[in-house]
Amino acid sequence: MTQPEDQRWMALALSLGTRGLGQTWPNPAVGCVIVKDGRLLARGWTQAGGRPHAEQLALSKLPEGAACGATAYVTLEPCSHTGQTPPCASALIKAGLARVVVAIGDPDPRVSGRGLAMLREAGIEVVTGVLEGDARRIQQGFLMRVTKGRPMVTLKLASSFDGRIATATGESQWITGPQARLQVQALRASHDAVMVGGSTAREDLPSLTLRGMGDRRQPVRIAVSAGLDIPMHGPLAEDASGAPVWLIHGGSAPQSARNFWTARGATLLEVAAGPSGLDMAAAFQALGQAGLTRVLCEGGGSLAASLLAVDVVDHVVGFTAGVMLGARGLPNLGALDYPALADAPRFSLTETRRIGEDVMHVWQRVVF
């Protein structure tokens, strides 16, 4: 039975869980708090790399027997299978919990109801569905990887007021201000990977690393180029950050380029050709198979258009600057073929915020 304080404690657990976003893949970013007699005993969230799990971390902070008769608030169904660690459901049972409140079930076939069943069979009261909508929003990437086979995709577009990302001569640094660029770093921090197209990799020589966000796991750096035409100098080839480099390419990529990047520790993912280059739907299935749950696409325009064309964009984050570049400027999206307005992808506005001298607007996919 739901109790009046359940939402308050679950909100805390959800807040803790978000600390793991971008850090825990392929595992979900889970939060857990343990409460007894209205007092917080311990809290935890899934740590970088996915271990320890939130429940295990919270329980480890308590002396033996301290959790007996307490309530645990967990944002995702406790695991019921033995992997690198014993099942979290077993740990909660062993600790003597009287009650476990869960936001959402885990669709992973290895768990999917078994964790809840284990708790109930041990005589523990189980309550589900508390702040379920918030939990599904936070866990969207993990849920999509399990149920659809691909990660959640966020498309970031930073442009002039009239939707341009560079002048007619190609100058693009910087259209938006320093506060907006810092916000982009925060976006990177909450995603498992950062993706750019081959033209962006060639023209901007981006590092795609996380900067100014403290000691956090670096995102995977992904570049997409059918012919593996990625500069063999610059940050992706030469930096020592330790951030992984994954390159998505087609069958036509020359062996010499494959050998070069393999020798530098890059992971190569070959996908089939698609109508406008590579089959990006297949590419994201490959990324999901590799364990990624949240991917931030930072452009350029051709890549952004290709993702919209295959309907894999779940969120759009736009940064708009108060500058006009005109029709000769480079548009933030490449060509898209939608004969009718009703055919175009549509997104719903969820947030608008001033960031320095720029405007950030956040949109989510509209599903009919």
Descriptive report:
Converts 2,5-diamino-6-(ribosylamino)-4(3h)-pyrimidinone 5'-phosphate into 5-amino-6-(ribosylamino)-2,4(1h,3h)-pyrimidinedione 5'-phosphate. Residues 4-127 form the CMP/dCMP-type deaminase domain. Pathway: Cofactor biosynthesis; riboflavin biosynthesis; 5-amino-6-(D-ribitylamino)uracil from GTP: step 3/4; Cofactor biosynthesis; riboflavin biosynthesis; 5-amino-6-(D-ribitylamino)uracil from GTP: step 2/4. GO terms for molecular function: 5-amino-6-(5-phosphoribosylamino)uracil reductase activity; diaminohydroxyphosphoribosylaminopyrimidine deaminase activity; zinc ion binding. Its cofactor is Zn(2+). There is one protein chain. The protein has 368 residues and is of the alpha/beta class. It has two domains: 4-142, Cytidine Deaminase, domain 2, CATH 3.40.140; 149-365, Dihydrofolate Reductase, subunit A. Helices cover 27% and strands 25% of the residues. The protein is built from twelve helices and 18 strands. The chain has helices at 6-17, 54-60, 88-94, 114-121, 132-138, 140-148, 178-189, 198-204, 235-238, 255-263, 280-289, 301-309, and strands at residues 31-36, 39-45, 71-76, 99-104, 125-128, 152-159, 164-166, 193-197, 220-224, 245-249, 267-270, 273-274, 277-278, 294-297, 315-320, 330-331, 347-355, 358-365. It has a nine-stranded mixed sheet. Strands 2-1-3-4-5 form a five-stranded mixed sheet, with helices on both faces. The chain has a two-stranded antiparallel sheet with strand order 7-16. Helix 3 packs parallel to helix 4. The longest helix has 12 residues, at 6-17. The radius of gyration is 22 Å and the shape is elongated. The two termini are 34 Å apart. The mean pLDDT is 92.
